[in-house]
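User: Sequence for Glutamyl-tRNA(Gln) amidotransferase subunit A, mitochondrial below. Tokens please.
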Amino acid sequence: MLGWTLREVSAALKQGQITPTELCQKCLSLIKKTKFLNAYITVSEEVALKQAEESEKRYKKGHSLGDLDGIPIAVKDNFSTSGIETTCASNMLKGYVPPYNATVVQKLLDQGALLMGKTNLDEFAMGSGSTDGIFGPVKNPWSFSEQYRKKRKQKSHGEKEDSDWLITGGSSGGSAAAVSAFTCFAALGSDTGGSTRNPAAHCGVVGLKPSYGLVSRHGLIPLVNSMDVPGILTRCVDDAAIVLGILAGHDPKDSTTVQDPVKPFVLPSLTDVSKLCVGIPKEYLAPELSSEVRSLWSKAANLFESEGAKVIEVSLPHTSFSIVCYHVLCTSEVASNMARFDGLEYGHRCDIDLSTEAMYAATRREGFNDVKL
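Assistant: Structure tokens for Glutamyl-tRNA(Gln) amidotransferase subunit A, mitochondrial:
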């Protein structure tokens, strides 16, 4: 049941095959059993059970709020959640409790979703392994699969058992692990330069970065304003389309969102791909690309061709410039965004009061990890 799609579990709830409370308790139980993954920073058990109780009342009256009513979800800990600690996995914000919900969080709650908790990440979402937050690294659920254990046992040369695990990728590794481990049905991540898609690939789930402006950033604690986008993690593409349909649209609190009304997203049937034209950018076949990835890429292209799709080579000549622009924007905007954490207005503040400069320096040294410093 915990492996069902959103459509399947929604139908089961509507038909009374399971109640929201029972579903919530199953996920909470699994969260506790998989605590060693370190996927969650905060488990909002009381909040989730209360939400499940309210959902149950609605179902009894036949008044479901939407497709996510009574369905457990998780949220990366860099999205503001009213009344629930939001840390960005940093000492700088440890203990910070926002007074409001991020727009995307509120949209999920308005659909009746159950918030299981806040998930682990690289500090302030800057990283690609989910290993450098103050709460410790996130462990990939696949590290504990029977297949991996057998493979490692054959190659083992006296490594310690507790160090024999795989990373989840990052920075949304906690959300990816939470979905992969069946502790929730969908999760929010954030994506600047791959922070949703990277851990999705590592953990064997679907990761989607919507086009910039399609989904509101209001309430997402910024890393790189001009590239940050709320991301979606699910176990199948159809589920990602459902969540995107809920989240997409203009938000008056975020001037970068699209102004035109967004129609509900409907995933088209792809049983017939004969009318598709699939482009493969030649610039992406970089010399550094591993033979394994290159082989899988070719295999995917061959699958499309064998089903009647047209596969062609295309050119994206400005690819190299985009990488340079990314690094320039990323470093400058990160520096700008982290400058606000000075110990004066909010967040961590050190006990040193010799001078303003000394207080600044000590606050940032204590609050940030080496990457931010």
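The beta strands are 40-43, 72-76, 114-119, 186-191, 206-208, 229-234, 277-281, 310-314.
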